[in-house]
Amino acid sequence: EDQVTQSPEALRLQEGESSSLNCSYTVSGLRGLFWYRQDPGKGPEFLFTLYSAGEEKEKERLKATLTKKESFLHITAPKPEDSATYLCAVQAAGNNRKLIWGLGTSLAVNP
Amino acid sequence: EAGVTQSPTHLIKTRGQQATLRCSPISGHTSVYWYQQALGLGLQFLLWYDEGEERNRGNFPPRFSGRQFPNYSSELNVNALELEDSALYLCASRGSTGSQAFFGQGTRLTVV
Prior knowledge:
By secondary structure, chain A is mainly beta. Chain A is built from no helices and eleven strands. Chain B starts with a strand and ends with a strand.
C-alpha cells in the first residue's frame, strides 16, 4: 500500500538552529514529491516539487532533497516566521493522480 | 493570475442541515480535489474531480458528495450534518499530471 510518513511530528528550534524534516515514502513508482507549508487555519502553500532521486531545490532558508526512499527539508538558520506545519505529498506512477499526504511536521522557532 | 478561490470563508450550520461549499480552480486547471482537515489533524482526502467526472473518493460516507461543472468549478455538499463534520474544508486544483496542486484558503464549517 502506498504510504507517506513524516517525522518528527513536532519540532521546536531556537532561532538560528538548523535542522531537517523527514518524509519517507513507499509508492509503486514515484511520479512526484511535493512539499507544502501550512499556517494555522489557512490552506497549504506550495514550496517544492521533486521528481527524481538526487534532485535538490532551494528557496531562501529551505532546501529539499530526494532519495529513492525519502525526502528531507533542510531549514538553515530558521527565523520565527518559519514556524508552521510542513506537509509532504507524493503521487505514484500510473493513471491514478491521487496525492498521498503525510500528517505533517509542526515546526516552532523560538526567538 | 487568480488563485484557487473558495466560498464561503466561514459557515455555521445546525446538526441535520445541509452545507454547500464552492471552489473555483485556477484558470486552465481541470482537476479539483477536496480535503477535510479537522482541528489539529492531517489532510483527509474526500473527493477528486477531473474533466467533470468523479475520479476517486476517500473513506467518507455517501452524505459527502459533490460535482464539477463544465467550467471546472466544483461544489461539495454535506447532508445531514453531524457535529464531527466541523472542520476546515480545503479545495485544491491541478493542471497536468505530475504538477503541483494549489490550495484555496478553505471554508471553516462549524456544526452546532
